[in-house]
Write a structure and sequence with these properties.
heterodimer; A: alpha/beta; Rossmann fold; 3 domains; six-stranded parallel sheet; 16% strand; globular; B: alpha+beta; Alpha-Beta Plaits; 2 domains; five-stranded antiparallel sheet; 29% helix
């Protein structure tokens, strides 16, 4: 029964056993042995143009599908090029497994060609990592890596394998029982704490349900919505949690935080109870922590105990999986209510409605003026009925996309929240489309971001992954420019790309994509229609946008969430 | 090392970890990147051959966050913070004292009180081995300071929680109540 395989063959077989359907990667000397059996494997290999792209593709794939994304790189520069993507996935709790080649064991520490201390470099940017020194470990290590990436608080795991280990042989064995004595993520919340939470929610007059990316990771969106309805809780969704409750839902308040909407920010700020689930009181949400939601008690549900009390003390801490705990909370709340409805909180909802009426998101599209970025986003939403997976880079366009796109389903919003990695959009969109080929995958990108990872459009063309990239070209590093305008006396140091930007349409065509350009507002809708009609190759659409547009509302960095700036004049 | 142990907030933490390559790096890196300072660190085997025990003495106002972060490391099996008095704490020290022939007798007498053993005697110095709880070592150093401390090395503290049913354990419980 037992079969002799090389380490490389065992690696590929182990990946097949994990159900890996696609690997994003680039070969090189040390990982070369693994690429030989991969040639015969049913696993699809997507050849990237830069390893960072492979990492973000794995992340986009994981975001869109909920499965573990897999990327492969060689030793040295291959591995170091993955680091940004690993830290990105770590910050946003994305399940990714990275396989890297390493120089032969005898060369480790000898400053060999393409040697880097990948294990050490990747340690602080991964949930866990391995250096495999014994070929027999390969099946078990791969099993552990996928288990660790996907369970508990998900995250990236790296497996570094020296070339000579890949070339040695082993008797293939299916991985045995997991031996992880220190790894036991909690699933269910403590019943006493759940009861305490329910009592606190029931007694609350101004509660806000603060839903984060953990809801998406735990596939708990339906349960969140049900709980919000049963307990009658207005619900904010963080940048990572967009889509956790439909934006069209009457209880949905949209995104809080530095560029959130006034109502979401202010509802949290004035609340007497924050029911926090799968969120981590990120500084972009809280603003100045000491001034954040000063009257609010806190219920904090998280699968990661280290998040609870890290930034804000929790009155009721609950360690557990968001889906499981939401189930418990809903059950307990239904039991408490019996035949009665939840408290109507009429005054609170009236206050919220008044904020919504008086402080809407707003911009104006002058029909003869430059294209407003928000207008492009809204037009695409209108034309597609919002039925798309939306990916974004980092900056102004990302904030506008999150603000103006109405998200109705989880896993339809993919962006780099924690790390804020410019250039994320194109590779993440490719990964998402590879994992969800039947869905329309669109990316909003900035002209700055686009130039960081645009070479992956070659990957998309060659691999026939027809993503649609909407470049909101304002000719500036727009978010940085916005800060320079507001806080640095309009001294635009190193942010002006006007006149130095390349020809995006020409670039798109050179990389095998269709390319379009829209320069006036009346060209926006027809150009979107043209882009949506093409499905046999990637499409890039450049929109020449207003160079002076700024993202509002805004809570200036370090400021209190009491001071939401709705327009630039308010800052003076 | 120059700071006397009594004047800063120190915490004694036992970290039981899987005995695997690189675990020490994971633990020390965790302290570094979360902004905690390690005062001393002692690592050794335990009764279970698959585990090793690290005794970390760390500076800082509170340890809850770092303990949670330590638990997040996949190889960490158990973390315990020892409140003062709840653990037996020991440290071993080798210390070389200036001791010319005139003061040698005096120094040896003083050392005897501390159960310090002379382990190396040179023309102008004596090296003592002394072990005990951190207070014991500090007191010994205070006593020796006037003679001139030439060099010293400490093993780092090790700690074992007291049996809660022991006399000392019960006293510790009463104190902390």
């Amino acid at each position: 029964m037992s079969e002799t395989l090389t380490g490389a063959e065992a690696l590929i077989r182990a990946l097949e056993h994990e159900g890996v359907e696609v690997i994003f990667g680039m070969p090189g000397g040390a990982i070369l042995p693994a690429y030989d059996p991969l040639y015969d494997s049913p696993i699809r290999h997507v050849l990237v143009r830069h390893e960072q792209g492979a990492g973000h593709m794995a992340s986009g794939y994981a975001h869109a599908t909920g499965r573990v994304g897999t990327c492969v790189a060689t030793s040295g520069p291959g591995a170091t090029n993955l680091i940004t993507a690993l830290q990105d996935a770590y910050m946003d709790s994305i399940p990714v497994v990275a396989i890297t080649g390493q120089v032969a064991r005898t060369s480790i520490g000898m400053d060999a060609f393409q040697e880097a201390h990948t294990w050490g470099i990747s340690m602080p940017v991964t949930k866990h990592n391995y250096l495999v020194t014994d070929v027999d470990e390969i099946p078990d290590v791969i099993r552990e890596a996928f288990h660790l990436a996907a369970t508990g608080r998900p995250g990236p795991v790296l497996v570094d394998i020296p070339k000579d280990v890949l070339n040695e042989t082993l008797q293939w064995h299916k991985p045995g029982e997991l031996n992880l004595p220190g790894y036991k993520p909690s699933v269910k919340g403590h019943p006493k704490q759940v009861q305490a939470a329910i009592d606190m929610i029931h007694a609350s007059e101004r509660p806000v349900l603060y839903a984060g990316g953990g809801i998406i990771r735990a596939n708990a969106a339906d349960r969140l919505r049900r709980f919000a309805e049963v307990a009658n809780l207005p619900t904010v969704t963080t940048l990572m949690g967009r889509g956790a409750i439909p934006d069209s839902h009457p209880l949905a308040l949209g995104m809080p935080g530095m560029h959130g909407n006034y109502t979401a920010i202010t509802a949290m700020q004035k609340s007497d109870l924050l029911v926090t689930i799968g969120a981590r009181f990120d500084d972009r949400v809280t603003g100045k922590v000491d001034a954040f939601a000063p009257d609010a008690k806190v219920i904090h549900v998280d699968v990661d105990p280290a998040e609870i009390g890290k930034v804000r003390n929790a009155d009721v801490p609950i360690v557990g999986d968001a889906a499981a705990v939401l189930e418990q909370l809903t059950f307990a709340m239904e039991h408490l209510l019996g035949a009665n409805p939840a408290p109507p909180r009429t005054e609170w909802f009236a206050t919220i409605a008044e904020w919504q009426r008086t402080h809407p998101l707003q911009y104006e599209q002058d029909p003869d003026g430059p294209i407003q970025q928000q207008y492009v986003i809204q037009e695409l939403h209108r034309i597609t009925h919002g039925d798309a997976v939306v990916v974004a880079g980092v900056g102004q366009h990302q904030m506008w996309a999150s603000q103006y796109w109405g998200f109705e389903r989880p896993r339809t919003w993919i962006n780099s929240g924690g790390l804020g990695t410019m250039g994320y959009a194109i590779p993440a969109a490719i990964g998402a489309k590879a994992g969800a080929p039947d869905q329309l995958v669109v990316a909003f990108d900035g002209d700055g971001c686009f130039q960081m990872t645009m070479q992956e459009l070659v990957t998309a063309s060659v691999e026939q992954i027809p993503v649609k990239i909407f470049v909101l070209n304002n000719g500036w590093l727009g978010m940085v420019k916005q800060w320079q305008r507001l806080f640095y006396n309009e001294r635009y140091s190193a942010t002006d790309l006007t006149g130095t930007n390349p020809d995006f349409v020409g670039l798109a065509e050179a990389m095998g994509c269709a390319g379009f350009r829209a320069e006036r507002p009346d060209e926006v809708a027809p150009t979107i229609e043209k882009a949506l009609a093409i499905n046999d190759r990637p499409v890039v659409v450049e929109f020449r946008c207003d160079p002076d547009a700024m993202v509002f509302p805004m809570v200036p960095a370090g400021g209190s969430n009491d001071d939401v700036v709705m327009r630039p004049e308010d800052l003076a | 090392m120059s700071t006397p142990y009594k004047n800063i907030t120190q915490h004694v933490i036992t970290v039981m970890v899987e005995d695997k390559p690189g675990v020490l790096a994971r633990i020390s890196s965790m302290f570094a990147r979360r902004g905690f300072n390690i005062h001393s660190l002692a690592v050794g085997p335990t009764v279970d051959p698959q585990l090793s025990r690290m005794t970390v003495v760390a500076d800082g106002p509170e340890m809850e966050q770092i303990i949670k972060q330590l638990y997040k490391l996949v190889n960490t099996v158990k973390v315990t913070e020892h409140r003062p008095g709840q653990a037996v704490e020991r440290e071993i020290m080798l210390v070389r004292i200036n001791a010319d022939s005139k003061r040698r007798g005096e120094i040896l007498d003083a050392a005897g009180i501390f159960n310090a053993q002379a382990v190396d005697v040179g023309a102008t110095t004596i090296t003592f081995e002394v072990s005990g709880d951190p207070g014991h070592l500090a007191d010994f150093l205070e006593l020796m300071r006037p003679y001139g401390i030439v060099d010293l090395v400490k093993s780092g503290r090790i700690a074992l929680a007291r049996d809660p049913k022991s006399r000392n354990g019960r006293r510790a419980e009463l104190r902390s109540a």
